[in-house]
Amino acid sequence: MDAVERVVKFMDHYVPLFMERRAHGGGSEPLFVFVSGPQGSGKTFTTEAIVKHLSDKYRVAGASIDDFYLTHEDQLKFSKTFARNKLLQGRGLPGTHDITLLTQCIENVLRGKEGRLDIPTYDKSLCSGQGNRSGFRKVDLPLDVFVLEGWFLGFNPLLSKQEINNHPLLQDGGDMVQVNANLLFYKDLLWGNSELKSLGVILEADEINDVYQWRWEQEQELHKSKGQGMDKDQVKKFVDRYWPCYELYYGPLVQRENLGSAATLTLGLDLQRNVVSVKDRCIE
After folding, report:
1. Domains identified in the chain, total number
2. Is residue 95 part of a domain?
3. Contacts 24+ apart (CB under 8 A), 279-283
4. What is the mean pLDDT of each run of 10 residues along the chain (284 residues)?
5. Is 7 in contact with 46 (CB distance < 8 Å)?
6. Which residues pair with 205 in a beta bridge?
7. Domain range for 187
8. Which of 41, 140, 208, 278 could join 203 in a cystine, given CB atoms 3.0 to 4.6 angstroms apart?
């Protein structure tokens, strides 16, 4: 059984349970599904499979946290504001997204009122591979299920003075200090939001260094489809900017197994993305 088949089986077990409880409780709130994994691990493919599978029975929409990146113009302004922070030079890390737009999207999905939801689209091949917003797509509301994928979903910022003081990446003046602070906005809005009922899917690399190969494969596909993008050296430098986040947050995420508030499926993947381990943790 491959990764998508296992994820679909997970959804077929927990989504009907949620819908039954919602029907009996008289509520209308949607179920959120968070899909997390390193770049190139298969998050987008998995998200599309979830949406396609569930849409036969439910009102479903999917999105990526990448869809909410700042426009190229705003990213340049943001990078200039934090010119001394090399981690915030270009898209990618917490803080480089349009938080207002993301917040509005989540709130509109959660309220469940009839209408249309505008979800931004982002083209990573534009601006010589630096990327830019390419438009919006409309989704009908209300939804039964909203699926959101992203490489840092479930990463929890370090908050206590002891944790911060004990980690060299968070010493005064370090580039990760601002990123760690930015991450709190995402946690409070998404996986740490007590208003959201959610399932989690974690795609776990058995070797985190696999992300370099996965991300390069991803960029090669972008070259084929769009005719432009980053070269291999640019991809390495791109992933290097993410590495401090993996050092700080990735291990605790896969160990906790609690990305979803109700249940979390963690799939261990090898370099070829074959499933090498399966953990299904039900919290409720």
Report:
1. 1
2. no
3. 280/10, 281/257, 282/14, 283/258
4. 95 96 86 96 96 97 97 96 93 95 97 92 89 95 97 95 83 87 97 97 94 89 79 87 92 95 97 95 84
5. yes
6. 269
7. 3-67+100-114+138-282
8. 41
